[in-house]
Amino acid sequence: AIDISKLRDQTGYITLDPGFKNTGAAKSAITFLDGEKGILRYRGYAIEELASKSTFVEVAYLLIYGELPTGNELETFRMTVRRHTLIHEDMKKFFDGFPSKSHPMGLLSALVGALSAFYPESLNAHATEEEEDLTVIQLLAKMPTIVSWIYKKSLGHPLIYPSNDLDYVTNFLNMIFGQRTEQTEIDPVMVSAMNTLLILHADHEQNCSTSTVRIVGSSQANLFASISAGISALWGPLHGGANQAVIEMLEKIKNDGGDCDKWIAKAKDKNDPFRLMGFGHRVYKNFDPRAKIIKKACDEVLEKLGINDPVLEIAKKLENAALNDPYFIERKLYPNVDFYSGIIYRALGFPTDMFTVLFALGRLPGWIAQWREMRTNKEPIGRPRQVYVGAPERNYVDLAKR
Ligand code: ACO
């Protein structure tokens, strides 16, 4: 194979690939994805199997350490994570400093970045494996606490501290939906749906946010700073922000009279910037395997929780129309994972602007695994080239003469 890194020195040429549509940036042993066949595997295990048989914590272990844990390994991992769920009390002051209506993704990125100030061991670029492991555990453990406190603060409700007798997902849901004085009974249907959603989002190879984590980490920036950057990348509506955008779009269509054909026509009109949110994917060109699993989970949750949501009808109409419309068929635009995740999050009782934060909670193990792999592989600092198309050399013109 040609060594692309030497191409410029040998020929004077560089590869120009805006959006990195065909550029591999790393060799990775974490996630296998075949966009044509709709296959997704973590460390060799099919996403369908993991979603139906595993838990989010076990999948986190698998992604980060490469193998499914034994019973003992899983128990030790769980116990270690539980020991670190509290965040420094001074971090609560951050929540007071932000306006209560701040978008939770802005807060999440700031708070995760701020962890490096409270846990400065993370700054050691040459940490031992054990020290690095501690930072990984700290982040996994503290993320649900941070996420739930962001939510509680946005409501003006008292914060709920972690209950370490609960498992990871139940503890998280308790901090979100519980009362301060008592532990709330969290419906197992909710726990199971949340586990599935988090597993489905746990990694997706070199997408925008993961590439961001790797490239920031390649400068030897610490884990918290790298993940904070990944959170910012995830925020955009073309990436993780799509789940929020989907529900907002469905509500808009509903309030506009529910005429799906009109909105599909808008999406097809090249003079209209509107896109059908939740449709299309850079790599899945036949179907998104996560969408299949989540669609099933979505139907189950709505049925079990007895929810009759009018936006769901709009969603079904859009899905049908788009799957039969030549515009979408020719361009291979299918509903992606985020088309359905928002509907479940809404059914579970989360407000729309929390959806992308939940995606971040799910993606965390993947980001961590990719950051670790980048370090283990001793990857060089990420530094793309460019093709300069600006002005040729010119003389400076004094201000008075311009
Ligand atoms: N609605 C209408 N048309 C679309 C859509 C859409 N959702 N997505 C793509 N197209 C059209 C484009 O206009 C383009 O048409 P053209 O060939 O006539 O110019 C063609 O399909 C190809 O689109 P690209 O933008 O080149 O595809 P790309 O791979 O760059 O983008 C993306 C993928 C960003 C996901 C895109 O499909 C999109 O914007 N979807 C909506 C947002 C969304 O759901 N994002 C979530 C992605 S999943 C995730 O991050 C977890």
From TrEMBL:
<dbReference type="InterPro" id="IPR002020">
    <property type="entry name" value="Citrate_synthase"/>
</dbReference>
<keyword id="KW-0816">Tricarboxylic acid cycle</keyword>
<dbReference type="GO" id="GO:0006099">
    <property type="term" value="P:tricarboxylic acid cycle"/>
</dbReference>
<dbReference type="GO" id="GO:0005737">
    <property type="term" value="C:cytoplasm"/>
</dbReference>
<comment type="pathway">
    <text>Carbohydrate metabolism; tricarboxylic acid cycle; isocitrate from oxaloacetate: step 1/2.</text>
</comment>
<dbReference type="GO" id="GO:0036440">
    <property type="term" value="F:citrate synthase activity"/>
</dbReference>
<feature type="active site">
    <location>
        <position position="338"/>
    </location>
</feature>
<dbReference type="InterPro" id="IPR036969">
    <property type="entry name" value="Citrate_synthase_sf"/>
</dbReference>
<dbReference type="InterPro" id="IPR024176">
    <property type="entry name" value="Citrate_synthase_bac-typ"/>
</dbReference>
<dbReference type="Pfam" id="PF00285">
    <property type="entry name" value="Citrate_synt"/>
</dbReference>
<dbReference type="InterPro" id="IPR016143">
    <property type="entry name" value="Citrate_synth-like_sm_a-sub"/>
</dbReference>
<feature type="active site">
    <location>
        <position position="281"/>
    </location>
</feature>
<dbReference type="InterPro" id="IPR016142">
    <property type="entry name" value="Citrate_synth-like_lrg_a-sub"/>
</dbReference>
<comment type="similarity">
    <text>Belongs to the citrate synthase family.</text>
</comment>
<dbReference type="InterPro" id="IPR019810">
    <property type="entry name" value="Citrate_synthase_AS"/>
</dbReference>
<protein>
    <recommendedName>
        <fullName>Citrate synthase</fullName>
    </recommendedName>
</protein>
<dbReference type="InterPro" id="IPR010953">
    <property type="entry name" value="Citrate_synthase_typ-I"/>
</dbReference>
<keyword id="KW-0808">Transferase</keyword>
